[in-house]
Design brief:
alpha+beta, Jelly Rolls, 2 domains, 6-stranded antiparallel sheet, 1 helix, 35% helix, binds 2-acetamido-2-deoxy-beta-D-glucopyranose
């Protein structure tokens, strides 16, 4: 009889332990599930953040590239003389002619084209231009600076007694692609030699 009681007690004890173990395991599983859910949520958030960072990095690197390209285009300065060598008068002609300066002192940014005598603005900005001309008697000396098809400023001498010099300059606000060049008037001439009396220069003051 005593024995039976002891056995029953043991049995009950076992069931109790097993039940306790079961509820412990269920609790642990629930915990793990909860942690997994939180981890998954965090992972989702991190993925989103990563995507945002990726987009931001791409935008930053694009912006950097465009700033670098812009900075390169901002280095603009040229200075040219009419003749590369020799000495000669140019003109007179019965129509206006664009002066094609051939002696390149500087052409940073290659915005001046010696084939057309034209400077083409590589960026929107404020630019300074000046030109200097020299001519002999007896023809008229007359040269104008143009922006696209519009005359900006000129030098003029009707009939130089022996020779004449003239200079003018202007600050111009240009859009990218605007063209600046100098034109010899009809029935006029200019002279140049190794002294580079007749020259044309320009540079970007600041971009806008
Ligand atoms: C024009 O400039 C040249 C070179 O400096 C000079 O020799 C000449 O006398 C100048 N002409 C006049 C009319 O001032």
């Amino acid at each position: 009889m005593k024995m039976l009681v002891a056995q029953k007690t043991l049995l009950l004890l076992c069931v109790g332990v097993s039940l306790a173990q079961d509820s412990n395991t269920a609790e642990k599983l629930k915990n793990i599930e909860e942690r997994l859910r939180v981890t998954e949520e965090t992972l989702e958030e991190l993925k989103k953040e990563n995507q945002v960072l990726r987009t931001f990095t791409k935008a930053s690197s694009d912006k950097l590239k465009s700033i670098q390209a812009e900075n390169k285009a901002k280095k603009v300065a040229f200075s040219v003389g009419l003749l590369a060598s020799g000495s000669q008068s140019f003109g007179p002609f019965d129509t206006r002619k664009t002066l094609l300066y051939q002696k390149i002192f500087t052409n940073v940014g290659n915005a001046y084209d010696p084939n057309t005598g034209t400077f083409t603005a590589p960026v929107n900005g404020v630019y300074f231009f000046r030109f200097y001309v020299h001519a002999h008697t007896p023809n008229q000396m007359a040269v104008s600076l143009h922006k696209n098809d519009q005359l900006q400023c000129s030098v003029y001498s009707l009939k130089p007694e022996s020779n004449a010099n003239g200079s003018n300059g202007v600050v111009l606000s240009l859009q990218k692609g605007d063209e600046v060049y100098t034109q010899l008037w009809e029935n006029s001439w200019v002279f140049d030699d190794g002294n580079s009396y007749t020259s044309f220069s320009g540079f970007l003051l600041f971009p806008v």
